[in-house]
Amino acid sequence: MSTPHKPRTARERARIEFTAEIKAVARRQLAESGAAALSLRAVARELGLASASALYRYFPSRDALLTALILDGYTSLSDAAEAACSAPDSGPADALERWVGVCHAVRDWALTHPHEYALIYGSPVPGYSAPQDTVAQATRLPYLIGALFTERLAEDGDSPADSRPAMPDDARQSLAPLLTALPPHTPADMVMSSLMAWTYLLGAVSFEVFGHRREIVTDPRAFFDHEARRLGAALGLAP
Amino acid sequence: MSTPHKPRTARERARIEFTAEIKAVARRQLAESGAAALSLRAVARELGLASASALYRYFPSRDALLTALILDGYTSLSDAAEAACSAPDSGPADALERWVGVCHAVRDWALTHPHEYALIYGSPVPGYSAPQDTVAQATRLPYLIGALFTERLAEDGDSPADSRPAMPDDARQSLAPLLTALPPHTPADMVMSSLMAWTYLLGAVSFEVFGHRREIVTDPRAFFDHEARRLGAALGLAP
DNA sequence: TGTACATCAGTGAACGCGCGTTCACTGATGTAC
DNA sequence: TGTACATCAGTGAACGCGCGTTCACTGATGTAC
Q1: Residue A204 distance to chain B (closest CA, Å)
Q2: CB of A124 less than 8 A from some CB of B
Q3: Least confident segment among A36-40, A54-58, B138-142
Q4: What is the mean pLDDT of chain B?
Q5: In b/e form, how buried is each residue of A85-100, taking b as 16+ CB within 10 angstroms?
Q6: Is B189 helix (H, G, I), strand (E, B) or coil?
Q7: How many whole angstroms separate alpha carbon A42 and alpha carbon B40?
Q8: A54 nearest nucleotide via C1' and CA
Q9: For strand D, which nucleotides have at least one atom less than 7 Å from a protein CB?
Q10: Percentage above 90 pLDDT, chain A
Q11: Which of A104, A139, B36, B148 could form a disulfide with A36 if both were Cys (CB 3.0 to 4.6 A apart)?
Q12: Are residues B63 and B128 in contact, defined by beta-carbon separation less than 8 angstroms?
């Protein structure tokens, strides 16, 4: 997107490399002190630059650098989730197993990149608003989860074993814009399931990353695995 | 806790009042610029003080003020949730209805106090770690949710209509410390349900407060009401 | 009830810090003929 | 292939800002006799 053609000159190559280096250092500092403390001067210092003003050749402002990190974060997280979903190692797993795989991928990514995770799913950085560019990357994960439910529906038809309450009209209408963007005849109930799965997944991961389970659960991974399975089953993903 | 006896002198009364005033102003500024931007100098300015140093008579540091706000936040949120749970207006509602009531109370509180909400359930403030004092207040909400499941269990025995997967040993053992703190014979499965309900509730509220549903759901309240009901039913709260 | 002393609240100046951003500049890299 | 010019990368100084915290101080409020 930002590199529409191949680098032709040495200068251009250097520019691309150095841009990546800036982002790498910024990510490292993010991991140490959080988003609010990300400072161009500190990044310049760590890069060995004589002054922070050099960075303005690469990013027009501090916020632009932050935006680039957010975009990269969404991309990296979505990549990990999609890779887990289509992992070729254990044959064609059913929808529930793939759901659990996606859950672990998201959790693993969040635990190894806690501050990037906080950047995209934590409290918004005050005074900063993410631009529209991020939307495309941000929606990849929920769409991936939706695909799991679609697949399950195709396998077995809509046979919810759970006694789920009927969806009232106001809730159904609340999804109208989303439903028109999806293939026709997508059941609103299934969209609801997908959104709930997405909500739960990030609620659980946020709790763990932000420390709300530290005093409560001794083996977070085992706990997480079970909750993912139970939720998947409760939402109708079980075979 | 911080006021073990009644104020006796005018000075003491003034001190208590002014402490509350400081916190109120700090909360207001929190709502404008977020936790990272909370500054003693700005608070002093808004209070009409000549200098920020006066605040050191009331709070030993900026972090101490932040801690007080966090503690108040937990208290206020828990109060709201408990009030909703024992609301006397509509007679003795069943467990599911009370669960939905608690959900709405938490959501309403979060929407009217978004920055305080971010302070307690959002990404941790970098460089700041909440002291142990907050734990007692922080656990009130999950315990309240647990009580709903206990109540439901007492009503009907454990008859999970949903085909929930069995809890593996490692997950069960992960809850060992929590189970010893609870009344004996509390089923691990029910604890699991409570924790999952808690996780979902805050996941959903965080999504809404942090803006991840802005482009997706047009009537957030209707959506939230339905998801709360569906989740409650899926976790076994339905009659 | 009155006085001497101790305690406390708020002042104002100061220390030392780091930040984002602008700007005129030098020197190197690329381009066109 | 060589030269003249344009483009770009990084420098260093500067502007103006706000912050947390300390400290010696004045004046008011409380206490003990």
Answers
A1: 6
A2: yes
A3: A36-40
A4: 91
A5: beeeeeeeeebbebbb
A6: helix
A7: 25
A8: D10
A9: 8-13, 18-24, 29-31
A10: 77
A11: B36
A12: yes
